[in-house]
Amino acid sequence: MPETSVSVSQKSYSAGPSGRTIVYDEDGKPCRSCNTLLDFKFATNALHGKVADSTGAVPEAAAAAATVSANIPGSKHYRQVEPADVEELGRSSWTLLHTAAAKYPRQPSDAQKQEMRQFLSIFSHIYPCNWCAKDFEQYIRDRAPRVDSRDELGQWMCEAHNDVNQKLGKELFDCNFWKKRWLDGWE
Ligand SMILES: Cc1cc2nc3c(=O)[nH]c(=O)nc-3n(C[C@H](O)[C@H](O)[C@H](O)COP(=O)(O)OP(=O)(O)OC[C@H]3O[C@@H](n4cnc5c(N)ncnc54)[C@H](O)[C@@H]3O)c2cc1C
């Protein structure tokens, strides 16, 4: 979690409605992919001089987070979906990472092992929530990805995810079930 408090329009907000510290990009704007959508809207509204109610929430922000979006002008299919917040980005990314592990060869070649190491290293550099990325980079430095087989990689990924779960105060996932969750299903 980022530790600094932030200053918006001469007011100081250490946390948004979710209770988390609000993270800002280098340009001083709230970072969408580093905050929850509610906190992002809260901080954006604060930036424009709108104030929170007594519960700490900006009513429009809460409403916006829950609103069903209209279609993009001229499109019958595509909706005006908001860019991903930290949670949606996380869920989508874990889906990719666990599924890639689940489909990794049982007996990978040296080239496939190298590709997976490189992919995880690059992923940890470019993950678009910078404070999440830094911790993941460090995790990879401390516990090198185990790429010798599908089972080892799936287990490693589960442990890496649990490291984040622990940091966020969430229940740990039982890694005995990683394959059911991400490959075989539950019958
Ligand atoms: C590399 C990375 C680093 C992240 N770092 C941060 C961070 O520093 N701060 C932050 O706020 N968010 C971070 N996130 C996002 C965070 O991990 C969650 O994705 C987000 O909070 C949404 O959580 P969720 O409860 O919806 O489920 P998620 O944690 O996204 O999990 C999705 C699903 O995966 C399954 N699952 C859960 N744990 C495991 C496990 N250990 N192994 C296998 N399957 C599992 C469950 O079925 C769960 O429903 C990170 C995401 C990634 C990919």
From TrEMBL:
GO annotation terms (biological process): cellular response to oxidative stress; intracellular iron ion homeostasis; mitochondrial disulfide relay system
Enzyme Commission identifier(s): 1.8.3.2
Cofactor names: FAD
Catalysed reaction equations from the record: 2 R'C(R)SH + O2 = R'C(R)S-S(R)CR' + H2O2
Record-annotated ERV/ALR sulfhydryl oxidase domain positions: 82-182
GO CC terms, sorted: mitochondrial intermembrane space; mitochondrion
Family matches, as InterPro entries: ALR/ERV (IPR039799), ERV/ALR_sulphydryl_oxid_sf (IPR036774), ERV/ALR_sulphydryl_oxidase (IPR017905)
Example of a GO MF term: flavin-dependent sulfhydryl oxidase activity
UniProt keyword list: Disulfide bond, FAD, Flavoprotein, Mitochondrion, Oxidoreductase
Keyword Disulfide bond attributed: yes
UniProt KW Protease keyword: no
Broadest EC class assigned to this enzyme: oxidoreductase
Cited Pfam families: Evr1_Alr
Localization: Mitochondrion intermembrane space
Superkingdom of source: Eukaryota
Name assigned to this protein: Sulfhydryl oxidase
